[in-house]
């Protein structure tokens, strides 16, 4: 059985027009592929030194890894993803399995 995954997106906007072209369509397409935006954030301050800050945070919960992959690989979205790439820099995009608690990590 597939389990939900979280996609952590941290990035800077490098080209507002490009990123606007992406964001105008992306929320609808994310939802159509089984994703739900859980949080949006603007950088406030670093709690620890040594990590270069990114100005934007987006946390998306996906129904499954397959749902995430369907969004990334949908040929009908081939014209959408370049706007994200061209509109951002220093992108961090990590996937995390959903956990109910930390026991699986602390075994």
Features:
four-stranded antiparallel sheet, 107 residues, Alpha-Beta Plaits, alpha+beta, flat, 4 helices
Write structural notes for this entry.
This protein is of the alpha+beta class. The protein has a single domain (5-100), classed as Alpha-Beta Plaits (2-Layer Sandwich). Helix content is 35%, strand content 32%. It has four helices and four strands. The chain has helices at residues 16-32, 65-73, 81-87, 103-106, and strands spanning 5-13, 35-42, 56-62, 88-97. The chain has a four-stranded antiparallel β-sheet. α1 (16-32) runs antiparallel to α3 (81-87). The chain is flat. The two termini are 22 Å apart. The mean pLDDT is 96.
Task: Put the structure in a nutshell.
The chain is an alpha+beta fold and 107 residues long. Helices cover 35% and strands 32% of the residues.
């Amino acid at each position: 059985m597939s389990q939900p995954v979280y996609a952590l997106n941290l990035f800077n906007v490098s080209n507002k027009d490009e990123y606007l072209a992406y964001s105008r369509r992306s929320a609808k397409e994310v939802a159509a592929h089984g994703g739900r935006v859980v949080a949006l954030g603007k950088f406030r301050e670093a709690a620890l030194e040594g990590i270069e800050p990114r100005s934007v945070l987006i946390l998306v919960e996906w129904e499954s890894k397959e749902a995430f992959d369907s969004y990334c690989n949908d040929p009908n979205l081939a014209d959408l993803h370049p706007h994200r790439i061209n509109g951002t820099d220093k992108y961090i995009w990590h996937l995390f399995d959903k956990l109910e608690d930390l026991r699986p990590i602390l075994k």
